[in-house]
Amino acid sequence: MPLAVYILGLSVFALGTSEFMLSGLLPPIARDMGVTIPQAGLLISAFAVGMVVGAPLLAVATLRLPRKATLVALLTTFGLGQVAGALAPNYEVLFASRVVSALACAGFWALGAAVSIAMVPVTARARAMAVMIGGLSIANVLGVPAGAFLGEHLGWRSAFWAVGLASVVALVGVLTLIPRIPVPAERPRLRGELRIYRDRQVWLAIAVTALAAGGVFCAFSYLAPLLTDVAGLTEGWVPVVLGLFGLGALIGTLLGGRFADAHLFGVMLSGTAASTVLLTALALLGQWAVAAVALSFLLGVSAFSTAPALNARMFNVAGAAPTLAGATTTAAFNIGNTGGPWLGGTVIDAGWGYAATAWAGAAMLLTAIGLVAASLRLHRRTASSRIVAGTPRAVPLDGAEPRCAGAATAP
Asked: How many CB atoms lie within 10 A of CB 387?
């Protein structure tokens, strides 16, 4: 695995901490800004909306720009967004800072994913994405609990300052350790890349990714009030449980990256089914503290075990457009990260309580399982027709790409 892939994964640590840390900061932000918990939860949706819009928009805008310079510019903008959030005098400015940060984060994610995928063989795509997603997992293990700890003891603004500092460290790493990535001799053509959206499998991959992410974050976004108001834990427990979720996410990412290249659909189906069961159990047993803590850890494992497979699947079905494939995956995840917290907030506002967010998330994941099954049937039918037609490069029935000894060239 090239060193540049690991550097990008470390950079994602700062991005992921900012994206997810609000799950442990909603109560103090709501008190300070004079808004309700669901309104504070919209800050999570604001970041996700910025990711949805920013990923394809910036992928198109930077399609022919130098890769390393673009990564540096996006990471700098992201860091400035954190400073703006730390200094925000009111809810509206904080909301705007989240959107700006998300736009930069989306561009970095999409471009970084495309660069990572291009530098490894086809048969190592899931492992490359596992390295980048590992940055998110470490953010959940260390960054998010640390943000909640800082929020409790030094105020929620200190968490934004800490992420700003982490982005400076990441910027130094990108500047000094990532080599210059040459612009391809044949420049990418937007019209050619847009053709991927004619493929039903691309749209199925988008829907599965959005529902899988949304189902988990429907409950995870309101985990802090669920732990304190439903399970009866003190606020001091919130960083601990978030850390356990992050530890589970790291384990899940490693497991998913290990098996997804060979068993793509198996990993997607098993991980999504496990998350559905765990959310159902959280809805039923969340009032018991021990159960809430244990289920939070296991949910991290199941949710993130599918992430490498979901990313690799998009690059497999949209291989002719690697830049837009990365952007589309980022947008799909964050459509879920937008819809999930919104649905959770709607459930809370309806008076059904924080535990009901887990029921809503489980319903989204059940829909995702049905779409994965539909995608698998279509994949097998396509593969069988190619074999019958005598196509030399038939697609294996397990969803993995054919073995390839050579690595793709960097975009």
From this structure: 12
